[in-house]
């Protein structure tokens, strides 16, 4: 007899990769899926809270990625302006 069970059916701490290891795109996509799951409203309160907390962490990670990108753009523009002033 073979065991066709692929998991215990229980989510654990390691069920999701750490948020800080996700790229912007990965965090955004997971956030979209998390919102869809929460909108279904078919989980217990504890499960819903875990997804809500994960969603909050994902949203913050996305915000941090975007802030970092904005800072890099501002620095690039500033460096370009500095270079143009030196050339004149």
UniProtKB/TrEMBL annotation:
Subcellular location: Cytoplasm
Catalysed transformations (reactions): Exonucleolytic cleavage in either 5'- to 3'- or 3'- to 5'-direction to yield nucleoside 5'-phosphates
A biological process from GO: DNA catabolic process
Any single Pfam family the record assigns to this protein: Exonuc_VII_S
GO MF annotations, alphabetized: exodeoxyribonuclease VII activity
Region (Disordered) location: 1-21
One GO CC annotation: cytosol
EC number of the protein: 3.1.11.6
InterPro entries: Exonuc_VII_S (IPR003761), Exonuc_VII_ssu_sf (IPR037004)
KW Hydrolase (keyword) present: yes
Skewed-composition ranges (Polar residues): 1-13
UniProt keyword list: Cytoplasm, Exonuclease, Hydrolase, Nuclease
Main location: cytoplasm
Subunit structure: Heterooligomer composed of large and small subunits.
Role according to the record: Bidirectionally degrades single-stranded DNA into large acid-insoluble oligonucleotides, which are then degraded further into small acid-soluble oligonucleotides.
Similarity annotation: Belongs to the XseB family.
Name of the protein in its database record: Exodeoxyribonuclease 7 small subunit
Organism name: Corynebacterium camporealensis
